[in-house]
């Protein structure tokens, strides 16, 4: 918690010096103490309150897939907080391998059922209470556990990471811990596609949470190169219903420094 607040102060001090971002300090502070428990996320899945799920492959992944692959075949992809993202089967159909982590057993089972894939289920010896689900037809392996109990010792490192709805969903006070985990899962050639959201935090308490570009650089910049690939207006009627008057979706390419 102390380290998180140090990072927050660094981000805020940078923001205060940047023209046009004088209110970033108050924006981040509004959400800094917001906490969602794992039980609350499981409850959302149980009650089908999953407006964050997208029935189609994410356009920003489609648009930038070549930059993620960089000419590579059979890339190992990691999906933090994967839910039942259809992006996983899309990548597996291309010949890539996919590993996801998700707390909701319902989400994992729905993914396999809705993808028409059979699967096996077994406990994970290294993580008490965790289970791993493996597709019989595709190279897809999904772990049901707390993300922070997962590590490279469980399933190695990855050549690519697709982070849509993960960094923006975790509790803001956990961002440094999250960044450390993600960096530890990156192989030397890993290309990490990170999706973030920008909006007025006075209008929505989160999740999904505001993650300004300055914080992306504070979290990953010491170890990684960061490139903003695309920025789009993502405001829809759903988000207007939350009271938002603007919403920008940014996708960054994060790679380890040599």
Topology of helices and strands:
Blueprint: H1 2-16, H2 24-31, H3 38-46, H4 59-69, E1 76-79, H5 87-93, E2 97-102, H6 105-114, E3 119-123, E4 131-135, E5 140-144, H7 152-155, E6 158-163, H8 175-184, E7 186-198, H9 213-220, E8 224-233, H10 237-240, E9 248-256
Parallel strand pairs: 1-2, 1-6, 2-5, 6-7
Antiparallel strand pairs: 3-4, 4-5, 7-9, 8-9
Helix pairs in contact: 1-9
Brief characterization of the structure:
The chain has 258 residues and is an alpha/beta fold. The chain has helices at 2-16, 24-31, 38-46, 59-69, 87-93, 105-114, 152-155, 175-184, 213-220, 237-240, and strands at residues 76-79, 97-102, 119-123, 131-135, 140-144, 158-163, 186-198, 224-233, 248-256.
Describe this structure in words.
With 258 residues, the protein is an alpha/beta fold. It has one domain: 3-Layer(aba) Sandwich (Rossmann fold). The chain has helices at 2-16, 24-31, 38-46, 59-69, 87-93, 105-114, 152-155, 175-184, 213-220, 237-240; strands at 76-79, 97-102, 119-123, 131-135, 140-144, 158-163, 186-198, 224-233, 248-256. The protein has a nine-stranded mixed β-sheet with strand order 3-4-5-2-1-6-7-9-8, with helices on both faces. The longest helix is centred in the N-terminal third of the chain and has 15 residues, at 2-16. The protein is globular, with a radius of gyration of 18 Å. It starts with a helix and ends with a strand. The relative contact order is 0.16.
């Amino acid at each position: 918690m102390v380290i998180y607040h140090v990072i927050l102060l660094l981000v805020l001090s940078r923001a205060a010096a940047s023209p046009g971002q004088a209110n970033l300090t108050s924006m981040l502070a509004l959400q800094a103490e917001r906490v969602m428990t794992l039980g609350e996320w499981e409850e959302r899945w149980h009650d089908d309150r999953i407006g964050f799920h997208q029935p189609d492959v994410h356009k920003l992944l489609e648009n930038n897939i070549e930059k993620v692959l960089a000419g590579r075949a059979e890339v190992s992809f990691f999906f933090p907080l994967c839910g039942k993202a259809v992006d996983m089967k899309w990548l597996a159909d291309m010949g890539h391998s996919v590993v996801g982590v998700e707390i909701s057993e319902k989400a994992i089972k729905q993914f396999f059922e809705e993808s028409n894939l059979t699967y096996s289920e077994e406990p994970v010896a290294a993580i008490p209470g965790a289970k791993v689900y493996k597709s019989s037809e595709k190279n897809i392996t999904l772990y049901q556990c707390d993300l922070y109990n997962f590590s490279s010792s469980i399933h190695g490192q990855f050549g690519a990471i697709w982070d849509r709805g993960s960094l923006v969903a975790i509790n803001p006070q956990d961002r440094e811990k999250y960044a450390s985990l993600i960096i530890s899962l990156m192989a030397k050639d890993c290309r990490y596609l990170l999706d973030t959201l920008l909006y007025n935090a006075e209008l929505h308490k989160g999740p999904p949470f505001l993650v300004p570009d300055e914080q992306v650089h504070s979290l990953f910049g010491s170890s990684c190169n960061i490139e903003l690939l695309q920025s789009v207006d993502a405001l829809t009627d759903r988000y207007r219903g939350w009271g938002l008057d603007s919403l920008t979706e940014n996708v960054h390419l994060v790679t380890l420094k040599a």
